[in-house]
Specification:
Layout lengths: L1 H4 L3 E10 L3 E8 L9 E7 L5 H10 L8 E7 L22 H13 L12 E5 L2 E5 L2 E5 L3 H7 L28
Parallel strand pairs: 3-4
Antiparallel strand pairs: 1-2, 2-3, 4-7, 5-6
Amino acid sequence: IKYQVQGRYQIQRKVLVKPGYIQSVVLAPVGRAGADHTVVVTNVYVDPESQASRLAGVEALKGVPRGKYAVIGGDMNFVANAATDTTSGTKYYGADQVPVRELFSQVATDLQLTEPIQTDHTYVRREGAKSVTSRIDRIFHSLSTATQSISRISARTVKTPIHPYSEKGFHPPDHLPVT
């Protein structure tokens, strides 16, 4: 992002919404004084320790700074739909996550967020000979429907030199990056 926005945007401020878990950077366009064209980019890590910690993480998103545009992404540690977003079904993402999903839906509505199409599973764990996957790393934005149609924005996982299925002699990452 640095090279793409350098000269066009400058960092207006950095905000630790929830230190260690949610950080935002507010970018302001260079040379457009008075017009609100700010972009708020937020990185999120929702603590998966318990339902309470997940709820607290999602609740903290209400403190994300507001701007003309928002991009929020990261390790959400919950799935939007246990039937399609995980191979384990409700084993790990069951009824205890329903309140988390409902709260996130409210927060996303308040922040005017939508999720671009991204069906790739981003988390991979081996359980013996079987792999369990889910889509818990996600990106959201506040672009208008018109802007979305013109730009055809989407999200996808990125190929990495070290893949979760790698047979290397070390522990590979268990999350795939999303862009």
